[in-house]
Known about the structure:
The protein is mostly helical and 127 residues long. It is 47% helix and 9% strand. The chain has helices at 6-24, 30-49, 57-72, 117-121, and strands at 91-93, 101-104, 109-113. A three-stranded antiparallel β-sheet has the order 1-2-3. The radius of gyration is 15 Å and the shape is globular.
Amino acid sequence: MEAISPLEQALHAARALVLADLVAGRVAEADVVSLVEDSVAGRRWWVEQWPDGVAFVAGLVAQDVQDALLERYGRWPLCPVCASGDPHALDVEPELGPDPHWVCPQAGVKVAPVGSLGQALRGEPSS
Length: 127
C-alpha cells in the first residue's frame, strides 16, 4: 500500500472540514459539494506550485467555497453570534495561514475553527 502524500492528506482534510461546516449549515447540496471539489482541484495545483502553503489549504478552500456561494446563493455562513442588526457572513482568519477560524468581523470574535461550525450553530462553546 502506497503512503498518502502530505499534499493529499491536507486536501482530504480541507475537504472534510469544509463539508462538515456545510452540513452543519444545512447547505451541503450536490451543487454546493461540487464547489468544494472545484476548490480542492484548484488548490492542488496551487500547493504543487508553493509546497510551503500546504498548511493553509483548509482556510483557502473555505474561502473559495464561501466566495462561490456568495456569487450563486448569498452570504454563507451567517453569523450566529450577532443577534441584532443586518445578517452578515463570517470571515476566515487568518486569510493565509494555518489554523483557520470563522470570525465575526463585526464583533471581532472567533466563532469556531473551520470544520467546527456546527458547535457554534448549536450554541456550544468553541475550543
